[in-house]
């Protein structure tokens, strides 16, 4: 956004015209504010509330500031500062500079030059750091405009020259046209003050360059502006022929543009030229054309402006009636434009008119009738203006509704896209968590497997080493028959332990196969225990031990039968191993509903340190009461099986009193859909 110097630097307007132009802008800004056009800022504000992305918030706050800067400068400054907060946080330097530019332009409009300078210098510093050539063009041009507004035209010219460097570097044609225009205005104003030919030539050169660029861009409105300024230079320098030629060219361009405001301005300039040349007929012709256009657009300001010219020309022609008539029209349309000098002219015209037309004896009555007519005309004009304004508001309303629907549809699509992205993100997150859990389980399984193989390699090495040594001794006939029998007993015991270990491993290996899944079924626990008593008859008889089954005959539990059988068998085997000759082993049910089983013995027991390590991944192999050996792997596999069927294993033991293993099946918590 580029803020030009004051309007009289770019356009030729008399002082009162500039004031009326300001009133016109204020009127239309109020009309536009009254229209239901809040959908855009409201939509931006809603988007700011809804989004969690700080970079999007920075852009939205910047867009809001650009929306408000022309009519609500304080709001524009507030939203630009909000954009700066997020831009600084995220390092969005280009957005930061743009927000400072909005603050600078807003303060310039408010005539707060120091604040405007501070903001634009801040924007320029950032743009220099990021080497933003177009941005540096904009900042230098705006700084020049501030200096021009505050009367420091030499500083303004230096800033325009800096902007020109970046304009040429980037070949930004629109920016170059603005810079050339402003430099032309600068040298034109200097020439008016010092009458130096150098400033006149520079003003002419810059304005010609601006005109050439606008011609190449086919910017007719911009061409009219440059041509008007050039015509002023020619006329003021005495080259009236070229000056009027330029004005006629501007008039031709305006005809194609249908720009009635500019057409009135050019017609008035041509009229002024002919009036200065004392060609009052042509002057009146152009002034009346301008007045007719002013009446057609119902512009009170333009009617006042053109009627004043006609009155002045008529006075020069000694047509006092016409001069008075248009003077009344001028006053009726805008009393505010009356000055002390014009009041004197009116009084002079009235005296002259009365002296020539003495038959008008009742001047007061005529004047009252004239004012009544003009009042009625003014009411009609106001009514037409209101109707036009209502129609314009209706058109704008329809346009805003259409834009609102487009924005709403775009917002809906954006929200759907965001929902889809969030859904995909959740799916990816869920898959990631599942993959992490799988990796963790796999890692644990690998550690368990490695430890298992370590134990196997260690415990199988001993029995096979003993067998190999015995065979070697036998081959060399180094053993007597009695020694061989003793060695065979040891080998038999070692191989039995190794065989038991391999049997346990085979059972465990089957459970690790993909096809071997946990099958939760309801079955009779008493029968399962009886089967195990038969299995251990030989071992029990050898140590004169008794295995007592206290499970009710009708007791049923829910579990994987094969895995539970493995757990019970290994615990009973452990109890036989560590219970002395003549000891007893009991199997009972503690909680019939929840399936809580206890296996207790009257064996040697363990201290707390051994109990804490009993299910660990370390080899806890210990000789039994009758010298039995084992691998220590059975209980480790029992714990793995218990985890697979959602069961819990607990151990209670006292040295020399015995050990109790508690198996909690948690039957009460098993969902019905998991039971086969």
TrEMBL record:
EC number(s) per UniProt?
A: 2.7.13.3
Gene3D superfamilies recorded for this chain? 1.10.287.130, Histidine kinase-like ATPase, C-terminal domain (3.30.565.10), Tetratricopeptide repeat domain (1.25.40.10)
Start and end residues of the TPR repeats are 137-170
Entries under SUPFAM superfamilies matching the protein: ATPase domain of HSP90 chaperone/DNA topoisomerase II/histidine kinase (SSF55874), Homodimeric domain of signal transducing histidine kinase (SSF47384), TPR-like (SSF48452)
Instruction: Give the record's keywords alphabetically.
Output: Kinase, Membrane, Phosphoprotein, TPR repeat, Transferase, Transmembrane, Transmembrane helix, Two-component regulatory system
A single Gene Ontology MF term assigned here is: phosphorelay sensor kinase activity
| Protein's recorded name | histidine kinase
Q: Residue limits of the Histidine kinase domain?
A: 455-669
SMART domains from the UniProt entry: HATPase_c (SM00387), HisKA (SM00388), TPR (SM00028)
In terms of domain of life, where is this protein from? Bacteria
Q: Which InterPro entries match?
A: HATPase_C_sf, HATPase_dom, His_kinase_dom, HisK_dim/P_dom, HisK_dim/P_sf, Sensor_HK_Regulatory, Sig_transdc_His_kin-like_C, TPR-like_helical_dom_sf
Q: Which residues cross the membrane?
A: 382-399
Which reaction is catalysed here? ATP + protein L-histidine = ADP + protein N-phospho-L-histidine
């Amino acid at each position: 956004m580029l803020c030009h110097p004051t309007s009289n630097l770019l356009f030729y307007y008399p002082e009162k015209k500039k004031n009326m132009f300001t009133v016109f802008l204020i009127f239309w800004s109020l009309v536009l504010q009254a229209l239901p056009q809040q959908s855009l800022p409201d939509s931006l504000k809603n988007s700011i509330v809804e989004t969690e992305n700080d970079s999007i918030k920075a852009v939205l706050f910047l867009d809001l500031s650009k929306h408000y800067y022309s009519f609500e400068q304080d709001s524009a400054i507030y939203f630009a500062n909000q954009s700066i907060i997020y831009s600084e946080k995220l390092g969005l330097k280009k957005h930061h500079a743009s927000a400072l530019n909005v603050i600078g332009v807003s303060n310039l409009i408010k005539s707060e030059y120091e604040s405007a300078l501070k903001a634009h210098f801040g924007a320029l510093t950032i743009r220099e750091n990021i080497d933003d050539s177009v941005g540096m063009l904009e900042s230098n041009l705006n700084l020049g405009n501030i200096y021009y507004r505050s009367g420091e035209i030499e500083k303004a010219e230096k800033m325009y020259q800096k902007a020109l460097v970046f304009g040429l570097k980037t070949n930004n044609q629109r920016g170059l046209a603005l810079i050339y225009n402003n430099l032309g205005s600068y040298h034109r104003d200097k020439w008016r003050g010092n009458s130096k030919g150098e400033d006149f030539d520079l003003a002419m050169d810059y304005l010609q360059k601006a005109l050439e660029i606008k011609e190449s861009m086919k910017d007719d409105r911009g061409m009219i502006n440059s041509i008007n300024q050039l015509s002023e230079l020619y006329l003021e320098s005495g080259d009236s022929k070229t000056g009027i030629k330029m004005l006629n060219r501007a008039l031709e361009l305006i005809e194609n543009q249908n720009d009635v405001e500019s057409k009135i301005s050019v017609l008035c300039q041509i009229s002024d030229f002919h009036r200065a040349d004392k060609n009052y007929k042509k002057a009146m012709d152009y002034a009346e054309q301008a007045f007719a256009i002013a009446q057609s657009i119902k512009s009170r300001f333009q009617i006042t402006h053109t009627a004043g010219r006609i009155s002045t020309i008529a006075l020069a022609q000694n047509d006092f009636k016409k001069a008075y008539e248009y003077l009344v029209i001028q006053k009726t349309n805008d009393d505010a434009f009356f000055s002390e000098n014009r009041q004197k002219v009116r009084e002079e015209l009235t005296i002259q008119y009365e002296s020539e037309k003495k038959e008008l004896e009742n001047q007061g009555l005529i004047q009252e009738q004239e004012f009544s007519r003009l009042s009625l005309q003014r009411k009609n004009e106001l009514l037409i203006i209101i109707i036009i304004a209502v129609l314009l508001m209706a058109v704008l309303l329809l346009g805003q509704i259409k834009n609102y629907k487009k924005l709403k549809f775009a917002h809906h699509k954006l929200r759907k896209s965001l929902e889809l992205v969030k859904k995909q993100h959740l799916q990816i997150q869920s898959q990631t968590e599942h993959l992490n859990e799988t990796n963790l389980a796999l890692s644990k399984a690998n550690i368990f497997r490695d430890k298992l193989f370590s134990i196997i390699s260690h415990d199988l090495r001993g029995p096979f080493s003993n067998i190999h040594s015995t065979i070697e001794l036998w081959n060399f006939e180094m053993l007597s028959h009695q020694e061989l029998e003793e060695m065979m007993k040891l080998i038999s015991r070692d191989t039995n332990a190794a065989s038991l270990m391999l049997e346990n491993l085979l059972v465990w290996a089957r459970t690790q196969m993909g096809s071997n899944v946990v099958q939760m079924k309801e079955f009779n626990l008493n029968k399962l225990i009886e089967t195990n008593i038969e299995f251990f008859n030989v071992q029990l008889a050898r140590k004169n031990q008794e295995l007592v089954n206290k499970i009710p005959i009708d007791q049923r539990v829910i579990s994987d039968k094969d895995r539970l059988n493995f757990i019970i068998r290994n615990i009973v085997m452990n109890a036989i191993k560590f219970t002395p000759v003549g000891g007893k082993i009991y199997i009972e049910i503690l909680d019939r509903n929840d399936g809580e089983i206890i296996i207790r013995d009257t064996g040697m027991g363990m201290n707390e340190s051994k109990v804490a390590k009993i299910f660990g991944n370390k080899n806890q192999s210990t000789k039994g009461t009758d010298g039995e050996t084992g691998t220590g792997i059975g209980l480790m596999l029992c714990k793995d099986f218990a985890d697979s069927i959602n069961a819990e294993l607990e151990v209670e033991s006292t040295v020399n009193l015995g050990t109790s293993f508690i198996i909690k099946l948690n039957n009460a918590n098993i969902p019905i859909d998991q039971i086969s």
